[in-house]
């Protein structure tokens, strides 16, 4: 089952690699400079960016550190990103599974992962691996879409994401992530939750090109109860969805010494 899910991720990101490089949701945002502000990276650091996608985190951090290892499960995505960022000479590209990293224990000063863990079939394993490759007192930043604590909101969000993107596994609740972190020597230093506004059509077509399937996603969201529409800030104009918002969590941790 896990192999099937990972193959689905590879199919999706191979097909739409360019869109993740140019996506404004991924290429911009207050969280990218905030990563630098929170972590205060140093010039001697070796950094690992897990599931780099379009390489936006690697690009952001590269000027501040010695080297960045940008990894991704999808070779086509990684190759496309390497070509886009070819003028940056301290980024190394490695095809790697977030749940089985090809690096020795205690290799990195800083590990990052942004807007990707909801694709991972075994998120707890990803957290364990992130901790394993971190040096003692090393830093870890994760940014991802999250589910609300209420069951109906959790169900609604994960359902429409899965409809739109077959490589979506599940957006977890913060409480679930904190359990994984606590069990992996990662202590929370700082956290931040925000509503992330998404332009609907840009979001929809990033992973879809079948009009029938896209219409199913539109209908699902438009038929939602009013309280759910309000929670997700669904903006409609004459029967068309203009935009909506989802919850995003950013967390900074350090690796505790046993």
From TrEMBL:
Q: Which residues form the Methyltransferase type domain?
A: 48-142
- List this protein's GO terms for biological process: methylation
Q: What does the UniProt keyword field contain? A: Methyltransferase, Transferase
Q: Which GO terms describe its molecular function?
A: S-adenosylmethionine-dependent methyltransferase activity
Entry-linked Pfam families? Methyltransf_11
Secretion signal: which residues?
none
Which domain of life does the protein's organism represent? Bacteria
Give yes or no: UniProt keyword Calcium: no
The record, for InterPro entries, names: Methyltransf_11, SAM-dependent_MTases_sf
Q: Write down what this protein is called.
A: Methyltransferase domain-containing protein
Which species expresses this protein natively? Pontibacillus yanchengensis
